Amino acid sequence: MARAKKVVLAYSGGVDTSVCIPYLIKEWGVEEVITFAADLGQGDELEPIRQKALDSGASQSIVADLIEPFITEFAFPAIRANALYEGRYPLSTALARPLIARRLVEIARELGADAVAHGCTGKGNDQVRFDVAIGALAPELKVLTPAREWGFSREETIAYGERCGIPSPVSKKSPYSIDLNLLGRSIEAGPLEDPNVEPPEEIYAMTVSVDAAPSLGQTVEIGFEQGNPVSIDGVRLDPVALIRRANELAGSHGFGRLDMLENRVVGIKSREIYETPGLLLLIKAHQELESLTLAADVQRYKRQIEASWADLVYQGLWYGPLKQALDGFIERTQYTVNGSVRIKLHKGNATVVGRSSVDSLYVPDMATYGSEDQFDHRAAAGFIYVWGLPTRLWAAARRRDARLG
Ligand code: ARG
To answer: Rounded to 5 degrees, what are φ and ψ at 185?
Structure first.
């Protein structure tokens, strides 16, 4: 029994997804495999990828440019959320998955397919993100996952592909697994599997090393409207151009590298190297602008919401109810996040050196130690009398009775 007749496969051009094509047809009796490759600004030539799918046996090969929605609907919400998984990783890979899943499902419906497929293995986070997103968006579609079931080693995958006429990966075999898009690069495997091994310089492509960074720093000014970045150094840029510019600026000063041991959804720890220069720079600037424009209690509360938001996105729950509810909260906090932040990039560092906003809650007459001071110093005594009362009462009781400890 064939598992499905017509399948749309999420396609990257790599060995695993290429081998999925003949595998689906030969082993699982699929009649027609249509591939879908997303352009997320990864900089790959997409025409050879489109052709490779056809050469591997696809009946139709679709390439779609999703860069714009990727930035406006996924990256910008992450910036507004200051989203950093486990306090560090800005989710550059994770944010792409719900978008790819959304388009995959749309294409499957447009073409009348009865299933979709992806080439993720059973150990990673991406399978979780794809499966959960597809299940939420199109419960009627089956999800076929050959790479989770075939049990091939890497060599066996390549050998199977060769028997089906798929050329083995080009000569200079990289030991690394790399996922990339306009937001950054995620690099794992090979020598990096030893968490005690320093990442070799050759793995980086968007950032220079601190040693190679110019000795002269550069100050950049990032402008925001309602929490969205809109300009760099006074020049208004569309969202995609803005991310590109932020990547160039931060990357050229060696800012935006991350060497991280992270906790995957499936329960294992893994070591991943990231370079996400622009995104980390923009989140840093955004956080800073919030410290000027959000009320103290909102700011503190939002930090907890942000951690939950990042967890949800990492764990594949983009289309879930909690994510939607948290988005509502974040959206409401961003009305006043307008203004600009100046950051000095220098030798791997990004140091905030100034911030300003029309919605600033910083009141100079309150903060100053000079003669303009409007703060009523005498009022502090009454406040502290009440504020400290429970502590004084407790301390007094403790002095009376040593058993209170
Ligand atoms: N660990 C990252 C995440 O789950 C990236 C996963 C893909 N990494 C890779 N090198 N292929 O978001």
So the answer is: -125, 140
